[in-house]
Amino acid sequence: MRARITYFALAAVLVGYFVLVGSRGVLLIRHGSPVTVVFGVSVLVLPVIGAWFLWQTTRFARRANRLAAELEAEGGLPVDELVRTPGGRIDRASADAVFAKRRAETEESPQDWRSWFRLAVAYHDARDTPRARKAMQRAISLHDSDGSRTAALG
Length: 154
Fold this sequence. Notes:
Layout: H1 2-31, H2 34-74, H3 92-108, H4 113-125, H5 129-153
Helix pairs in contact: 1-2, 2-5, 3-4, 4-5
């Protein structure tokens, strides 16, 4: 819950920043000289890129949470079997052992979104965020394509 509150607070600050930067870009364009118009248009590009990035990140998080809820309803969420240090950090050897199991599970059934979801969690626990994100994107893609086939058959 804390992460969700932090995410929404940061997103609100970012949207405020987009409005501020966008208004400055409009003011530069309104000034009318060729240099300020070019700067104004350049400044307006930044909030557009930022808004697109925020939208993609939010969409990714919502879709991943939807998969987590579905997996939880099935009773298939990965069990936390990680060894932790007294400070609460995940033991690296423990994360590597769990990762090896999840990777083998995914290699056995590469078209199962559930195994990709669990692999993404293992990557995250091993602090490999880029691969965790790619694995989760694969899980989402497989889930969505599986759902479209099910809807077409039904």
